[in-house]
Specification:
Layout lengths: L1 H26 L4 H15 L2 H13 L5 H23 L6 H14 L3 H31 L4 H10 L1 H15 L2 H13 L5 H22 L5 H28 L2 H4 L4 H20 L3 H11 L27 H23 L2 H7 L2 H26 L3 H4 L1 H38 L5 H27 L2 H30 L3 H5 L1 H18 L4 H6 L8 H12 L1
Helix pairs in contact: 1-2, 1-6, 1-20, 2-3, 2-4, 3-4, 3-10, 3-11, 4-9, 4-11, 4-13, 4-14, 5-6, 6-9, 7-8, 7-10, 8-9, 8-10, 9-10, 9-13, 10-11, 10-13, 15-17, 15-19, 15-20, 16-19, 17-19, 19-23, 20-21, 20-23, 21-23
Length: about 550
């Protein structure tokens, strides 16, 4: 359990630090070799091939990734996960005190988000090393148990059972890294022979491919084709290797010294071979899997019900709890509209196309209409029947609807206009300035997803995290402003040409994000997590900016 927790701790830290950039990295158009390289790097960073497969499926569901590209990313992710196992299998116990000290200090003392999450990652690595040390120590009494030779001997002889056990272990642990590290530890301490460990690892490769298949069971057919293709390819190769090794290779060659390291090498060779064999055929496999899993045909004649444009029905309000639920559904629709307006902002700045700008601004009318419906619905509520808690919740949601409408105005009346002015002026941002704006845009999109979760779950920890992200974005806005002024002082021509637009965009991003994050405020106040005034903090921030 400590190993599973540590692996998740590392992955969470990386997702919170760089998760907003994953979409841009994964959805850029590239060939199969480059796509597999992206998957490899992401799996090394996130320490999870399953997480890479889930991200790929999610982007494929949105139409941002083609089948061939997605399959190449997943195959590269499997190889990256294998490399992580090699790194973690080395004896780094001597590093544990330093990792704990550095990671703990960063996580508890650092003010910047990325430094704090870096501390989380470093502590997670230390806990992985500690858990592996615990595993080796815990296996020692088992190794001298009289029943162990019978069990290990049975697994060595019945390689099919060992294969199935390895698959079940990886699936139940939901982490191929943790499962294979456990198998390596068993072989290192002599608890099981190398031959049994090899069958377990081959089974773990199959079991790890089942994880994204299970976790994407609620998705449409199109994105699931990628994880099914990965499952079939890995399964076929794993079964072939299982029988070839156990039937065609002499048993003396399978009982080797330093079995743990050889097991890791075998795992890397397996995933490398799969990548080499399957990568050239990713595009051709799309035809096969399109036929094997065709998209269900939609028959319009039998579509007797149409989706309502609004979740609010003043004529049928229902109970107070139903009223609150209806308001939440309407707010979710409103968030989706605002997100649809904000998502293409970076494209607007790059292209400046008038039709695209008009289309984004036209969505603001729908957002305004949504606010009007919420106001009219709230005005007609029988407050004497709503009760204190439900009435308070209705008022808070009305206030958040106003904030969402203001956020839509920021896009339509400020950001869209700035994009048009940039096009008319023929200006462009400096390379550093463009990277800063794009990073803030990605962070805000991630915050919008988090705001939807807070609205539905009302989870205190998520609300705290969203509020912290608001503070981090303010810090990023201040830092970008300072860097921009330094570029101006350095005489960078592109910074002069786009100075006003850059600064106004920073401010608009900050205002937009503050309105989106406002959903967390009533939750934090209700739990005593906010001070009545932020005057001291604001004065300190201004003082820092002046210096």
């Amino acid at each position: 359990m400590l190993l599973l927790f540590a692996v998740r701790l590392v992955r969470t830290g990386i997702e919170r630090s760089y998760g907003a950039s994953f979409q841009r990295i994964m959805t850029e158009q590239r060939g199969p070799i480059q796509a597999s390289g992206v998957g490899f790097v992401l799996a090394v960073v996130m320490q999870s091939s399953a997480a890479v497969a889930l991200l790929t499926s999610g982007f494929a569901a949105s139409g941002l990734i083609a089948f061939s590209t997605g399959l190449a990313i997943v195959l590269g992710g499997d190889l990256g996960s294998a490399l992580i196992i090699q790194l973690l299998s080395f004896d780094f116990d001597w590093l544990v005190p330093a990792l704990l000290a550095i990671g703990g200090w960063l996580f508890l003392k650092a003010e910047q988000k990325k430094l704090r999450q870096a501390g989380r990652i470093v502590m997670g690595l230390a806990l992985i090393l500690i858990s592996l040390q615990f595993l080796r120590e815990a296996m020692e009494p088992i190794r001298i148990n009289p029943f162990l030779p019978a069990i290990s001997g049975y697994l060595a002889r019945d390689y099919v059972t060992a294969f199935l056990v390895g698959g079940a272990l990886a699936f139940l642990m939901h982490s191929s890294v943790a499962a294979i590290l456990m198998c390596v530890t068993l072989v290192q301490v002599g608890a099981i022979p190398f031959s049994a460990g090899l069958s377990l690892v081959l089974g773990a490769n199959l079991g790890s491919a089942f994880i994204p298949v299970w976790l994407t069971r609620g998705m449409d057919v199109a994105p699931r084709r990628i994880v099914f293709a990965n499952l079939i390819l890995r399964g076929v190769l794993a079964v072939i290797c299982l029988f070839v090794i156990n039937l065609a290779v002499d048993i003396n060659l399978r009982d080797v010294r330093d079995g743990g390291q050889m097991l890791v090498i075998a795992h890397i060779v397996f995933n490398s071979s799969l990548l080499i064999l399957a990568l050239p055929f990713c595009a051709r496999l799309q035809v096969v899997f399109d036929k094997a899993w065709p998209k269900p045909t939609e028959i319009a004649a039998y579509n007797l019900t149409s989706k309502s444009e609004t979740a609010l029905d003043p004529a049928n309000m229902g109970t107070p709890a139903q009223v609150v639920a209806s308001l939440k559904l309407e707010l979710l629709r409103m968030i989706e509209m605002v997100e649809a307006m904000f998502s293409p902002v970076i494209s607007l700045y790059r292209s400046g196309e008038k039709d695209h700008i008009r289309a984004v601004q036209a969505l603001d009318q729908d957002v305004n209409a949504c606010l009007t419906r919420i106001r009219e619905f709230a005005a007609g509520l029988p407050m004497e029947m709503m009760g204190r808690e439900n009435g308070r919740a209705a008022r808070e949601m009305l206030e958040y609807a106003v904030r969402l409408e203001i956020a839509g105005d920021v896009v339509a009346e400020r950001l869209a206009v700035l994009a048009r002015n940039l096009k008319l002026a023929g200006g462009r941002f400096s390379e550093e300035g463009w990277i800063e704006l794009r990073g803030m845009h990605e962070t805000i999109l991630a915050n919008m997803k988090m705001a939807s979760n807070v609205l539905i779950s009302e989870d205190l920890e998520c609300a705290r995290l969203l509020n912290m992200e608001k503070t981090e974005l303010k810090r990023a806005e201040r830092n970008s402003r300072k860097k921009h002024f330094k570029r101006l002082q350095g005489g960078e021509a592109s910074s002069f040409a786009s100075s006003d637009i850059h600064l106004e965009t920073l401010r608009a991003f900050r205002d937009f994000n503050s309105n989106i994050a406002a959903v967390a405020t009533p939750i934090l106040y209700a739990n005593g997590q906010l001070l009545e005034t932020r005057l001291i903090e604001e004065i300190l921030n201004i003082h820092k900016d002046d210096h």
